[in-house]
Sequence to fold (211 residues):
Amino acid sequence: MGAFLTRCSLTMLASAALLFTGCSQSIKSADQPSAAKAPATVAELVTAKTAFGPMYKAAFGWSSDVKLLHMTPKEVPGFKNEAGKSAVWEATFASASKHQIRVYTYAIDTVPPPAHKGLSVGIPMAWAGQTRDSMPIEIAAFSVDSDAAYHASTTDAAAWLAKNPGKPLSSLELGSTYAHQSPVWYVAWGDKKAGYVALVDATSGQVYKRK
Fold:
């Protein structure tokens, strides 16, 4: 009889211990705050030179004699271009040996349908060669980045921008023409009827033209 009571006592004690442990764990779990979710990271806008690197590498793989023709940022939903930086950049490369051009796009994130994160490559298209208004850009001459060109142009346009608040940036494009020895950044606000244009030398950063 004593042995039976001892076994019963041990069984009851074990059950009570398990019950207490379970309750303690439940209380502890309830008291502890749930782990905070990590904030979603937002992709940062990039300058032209940041986007140019992977685009040029891919273009060089297509044709070793590629030259940049022009480069410009694109406006896409969910991102606002600012201070010479963009979520999506587009560049056109030309190959004299292939008589073709090819458009490359670099995006910091996927923004369907216009852009996919990373590098996108267009199909080759026929190219008749350079013209007075569209000349190949020597890579060594492209030293002034888009943000620097933007700041130089806004300094030049400061008085006009003060008189025309709210006028949006309508163009920011890198290109080369017969009119200048170096490639230039074409930066414009407003439109042809009521706007301001600044041409920033992509090699020296000098502003050539005021309107």
Q: What stands out?
A: The first strand starts at residue 67 and ends at 74.
